[in-house]
Structure formats: structure tokens, C-alpha cells
Amino acid sequence: IEMRRGGMYDQVGYGFHRYSTDSRWLVPHFEKMLYDQAILTIAYLEAYEATGNIFYSKTAREILDYVLRDMTSEKGGFFSAEDADSKGEEGKFYVWSTREIETILGVEDAEIFNSVFNIQINGNSTVEGQRTNIPHLTKTFQDLAKKLNIKEKVLLDKLEKIRKQLFNSREKRVHPYKDDKILTDWNGLMIVA
Fold first, then answer.
1. Contact 16/2 with Cβ under 8 angstroms?
2. How far apart, in whole angstroms, are the C-alpha atoms of residue 155 and residue 148?
3. Pairwise CA distance, residues 141 & 155, whole Å
4. Are strands 178-179 and 81-82 parallel, antiparallel or unpaired?
5. Cβ-Cβ contacts under 8 Å for 115 (sequence gap 6 or more)
6. Strand ranges (E), 119-192
7. Cα separation values, 105 from 62, 111, 138, 153, Å
8. H or E segment to which residue 81 belongs
9. pLDDT tens digits, residue range 41-50?
């Protein structure tokens, strides 16, 4: 659960970054590897089968959404990886400032997003020597709904609308380099997933 809640998971565009650089799962190495997506999809599906916890199945579906959207060739094969860097800086594609979030979402929705995903004026992490924000969760959606005094379903619907707005805005940024090699073994893992 902590990997999925942390900054190692792309809360806006889905999929897992390669690994965490800290013990809190907050600051990842921002590269995304196909084999990680495959193995983690399988792990989250097995966790769902064992527990019935919808959080796990939702995570697996989100990973697959990411792979189908960003890591699949026109001919159907799966690409190997997305780099960590864009514009010469690691993580630049994935991090946010409070000003940027407020500009995109407006004050009310920005307050909700910032509260839920622990976004801070002075940043919640340091990436490439700069204070910035990596969206991450520290509470369950049930606990967050109680804190915000709204129903969990209402919160989830609101967050999905907000996520799509941020995702659409982020798509205008310079994307990390995509390693478009299609490797048989990694594709096999993804097909199994």
C-alpha cells in the first residue's frame, strides 16, 4: 500500500517509477520500466485476489491504463521504458509547484488536491537540488473524506476530475525520452500481467 500511496507511484498519470530513493517511498528515481509495470500489476492483482481490497484491483487497472496509453506501439508491442529526465532534469515532468496547481485548477480545487496529496508551498521534497512537490498520499481516501467532511464517493469523483485536468496540463510539458525497444522477455511479462 505504501508504494502506491507514495511518490514512487505517478498519482497523476499512473504507473510506477523505477524505485524510491528514500525510506518513505516519496522521492523516486523517475524512470518507468515496463518490467516493473508488469510485475507490480501481477502483485496487485494477487493482493486483490487474496484480500478482496478494491484498492489493489484499482491500482492494477491504473497501471494497465498507463501501459496501454504510453508504453504501447501502434503495432501492439510494449516499449521498454520512459526516461527519468526531461529538459535535462530528473523528474521535471512529474513535479509541481503550488502556483502551477492553483493556476490549472483554481483556488477551491487546488486546496482539495493540495490537502489530499500533501502539496506544500515550500515543496514536500527536494529534486535536483530544488524544493518541489511530488503528489503522494499519507491517509486512506476514507480518512481523507472524513477530514474534508464529504462522502468518500464524492471525494473520489472530485479527485478524478482534478487528476484529469492536471494530466491534460502535464501532457503539454516536454515528455521524458521513451525507449521504444520492444524486448520479447519484457513483453512476455506484460502479456502475462
1. no
2. 9
3. 8
4. antiparallel
5. 144, 147, 148
6. 125-127, 130-132, 178-179
7. 22, 9, 22, 20
8. strand 81-82
9. 999 999 999 9
Which residues have C-beta within 8 Å of that of residue 18, sequence separation ≥ 6? 28, 29, 30, 31, 32, 33, 36, 84
pLDDT tens across 84-134, in order?
Answer: 999 999 999 999 999 999 999 999 999 999 999 999 999 999 988 899 999
How far lies 78's CA from each of 73, 135, 164, in Å?
Answer: 6, 27, 24
CA-wise closest residue to 174 among 111, 63, 92, 115: 92
DSSP β-ladder status, 81-82 and 32-33: antiparallel
